[in-house]
Amino acid sequence: MSKKKGLSAEEKRTRMMEIFYETKDVFQLKDMEKIAPKEKGITAMSVKEVLQSLVDDGMVDCERIGTSNYYWAFPSKALHARKRKLEVLDSQLSEGNQKYANLQKSIEKAKVGRHETEERTMLAKELSSLRDQREQLKAEVEKYRECDPQVVEEIRQANQVAKEAANRWTGTLASRASHPQASGHLGGPAAAVEEPTSPRASLHRPPQQPLPSGRSHSCRPGKVSYRNPS
């Protein structure tokens, strides 16, 4: 046996409205939860949701009296609702027809003077040719963009900024070179001068003068002095 198919949301709404129209009575939610499953096959769990959707759409009236909500809907209300909806649709249809007529008039007006003639065809070809020439000229101008005075000025300003930055760095290096003891990097006291160790360099080294007994050379370069051990 095939499983019985449940009611759709629209079917539930239709059947619930039948309860109101057939009885022409006022109900509470608990009443509808008892009547709808028995008479219309609407599950009790969905009664509240379906009833609220009908209230939201204005098809069922609801009023709170004391602590309970009361629901009702009469056929006359549905008739008036249908009439109002029909009036709205008629108004929309009339507006649509008017817009359509206005558009048709605009189309006919636009067609005046646009018939395909030999002159129109020639002018269209000339326009297309001129547009192609314009694109070619744009490409040609782009090739010589580097000669644009504005571009040249931008390059000159960029070069000036780079030059100023280089001058700042050069000045910093010169300042460090003029104060070697402060920097400790460019010939300061820590810098040691190594003597040449190659045979060729040793051949040109001046011979040392013999020292008197008990005396030794001082360590200052460029000057020889003698001192007693005492």
TrEMBL record:
Q: Which residues form the Mnd1 HTH domain?
A: 16-75
Q: Which residues form a coiled coil?
A: 86-147
Record-linked SUPFAM superfamilies: Winged helix' DNA-binding domain
Has the keyword Chloroplast been applied to this entry?
no
List the residue ranges of the region (Disordered): 170-230
A cellular component term from Gene Ontology for this protein is: nucleus
Highest taxon listed in the record's lineage? Eukaryota
Pfam families per the UniProt record, alphabetical:
Mnd1
Q: Which UniProt keywords apply?
A: Coiled coil
Which protein is depicted? Tripartite motif containing 2
Give the originating organism: Bos indicus x Bos taurus (Hybrid cattle)
Composition bias, kind Polar residues: at what positions? 170-181
Question: Which Gene Ontology terms describe the biological processes this protein takes part in?
Answer: reciprocal meiotic recombination
Q: Which gene encodes it?
A: TRIM2
